[in-house]
């Protein structure tokens, strides 16, 4: 039983590294985000929303590379990643100064996962059928 768990950890070591990186970045105290200048080309969303989107997009990509059957297991990574993102938001609200739980961050996390799914899974489909 323990060997099975260790094999899974070794198989998903990059994914776990990305999760750890996301946790550290999201739980670090930061200066007041309102003082960060807006970047016009990012549009209406702030840089923090784009950061959430990119981190979870990257998370899906790394996971799909380490997974032997990503189409079969996609629902697992989406469910776990959504739970992880919600937990991070909750912890930010409780313990991190100048950070708060925001639905927009959670939506950006989910959007990054969803976009990763469509880009990488449909890319495989298109390359297999061309």
Structure characterization notes:
This protein is mostly helical. The protein has a domain at 47-130. The protein is 75% helix and 0% strand. It contains 5 helices and no strands. The chain has helices spanning 2-11, 13-27, 47-66, 70-95, 103-128.
Number of alpha- plus pi-helical segments: 5
Shape: globular
Largest sheet: none
Helix percent reads over 70%
Give the rounded overall mean pLDDT: 80
Poorly predicted sequence stretches spanning 5 or more consecutive residues: none
Tell me the total number of β-strands.
0
Percent of residues in beta strands: under 5%
Q: Tell me the span between the first and last alpha carbons.
A: 43 Å
Summarize this structure as a short list of keywords or feature phrases:
single chain; 130 residues; mainly alpha; globular
Describe the structure concisely for a colleague:
With 130 residues, the chain is mostly helical. It has helices at 2-11, 13-27, 47-66, 70-95, 103-128.
Blueprint of the fold:
Elements: H1 2-11, H2 13-27, H3 47-66, H4 70-95, H5 103-128
